[in-house]
Amino acid sequence: MAGPSVPGAVAIPPHVPPELVFDTGVTVGAEFLAAPHEFMASLHQTHPPIFYNASPAIGNSWMTIKHEDAFFALRHPELFTTLGATPFPRDPDNYFMMIPLEIDPPDHRKYRAILDPMLSPRAVADLETYIRSLTNELIDGFIDQRQCEFTTDFGRPMPVSVFLNFMGLPQDMRDTFVGWAMDLLHAMDRTKAAAAMRGIEAYLAQVIREKTDKPDAGAVSAIVHAAPDGVALTEREIFGFTFFLFIAGLDTVFATLNNIWVWLARNPDRRREIITHPENASGQVEELLRAFSVTFSGRTLRQDVELRGVKMKAGEKLNSLLPACNYDPDIFPDPMRIDFDRPRKPILAFAGGVHSCMGAHLARLEIKIGLQEWLRRIPDFALKSDAEISYWPGGVIGPKAVPLVW
pTM of the entire structure? Predict the structure, then answer.
């Protein structure tokens, strides 16, 4: 829907051309929620490369669907700041930054360096035996039943358990943590979101006190006891870093696995292709990440910027629709086709630039192991005959339920 205004939306700035104003329904609309990845791929046929999204649900912002433009925004923090990039409801009297996401260079680097050694390719590779063991333990729990609810039996517990192990947080609170994250990211209800924030804040404050007194090998302890350039982090820095990491790690790989397994269940020939070409595991994972990426990337303009002849003003928001960018036909020809031999080009599943996802190496390993171990033990499976796949609204794209049989 295009036009100079959208009922219920914030007023459109006068410099925005009416022909660039849309209410796309991204993250909340019925068409998006019915098939989000197909919807975002279709934007390349229905929308201009940069448009102004007027949304009563998520607020107004510029949006880009082109890989080149998103890459430019992600790599130029001097023009596009991440400050205020997340909409989580924070107490203005006890405010904290989402660290390192909302910190631009040069300060960004000192925070990121705290955890880089724990998420390096070598450190992540050392987790392979543990992740394979966990993966098979989970499969043991339901394989003989010849059915499962993938989201809760595998898609959630596999990556979330790995994440909690990395963080140094208790496994027996996994469902509580995921519940908080779901309310914050998907409920689309400010009351639920605020309640989740209070629960997370109270819990993490307690954990930080515990790690202060009793250090361990987990990421929370590393943050608590970090002293970049010899200066200890403040209480608000520690809390903001821990909070951001906590939220970022609970839903993204979970949602990605759910998306991939829906596709696997519907495409038995492509499952066989994966099984018969184990030497191409990296290419398979990368292409599946391209096709089923789950997040967006928001920025605020530091100054007036012109892209593709579109004039955007300082203070306005720009959202890069990363899943749509991964379907850009100028970069990925025939983008809806999943091609495991596609020539390697940078995908935006993990954003890019200085704010690229710290956990990208770990996510790739989790997906690779999940595919290998599941397909080794359950090579033939399908969605239940009466399954209707529907998707959560919000900023992370994933199906609500994935009932499988074999």
Answer: 0.94
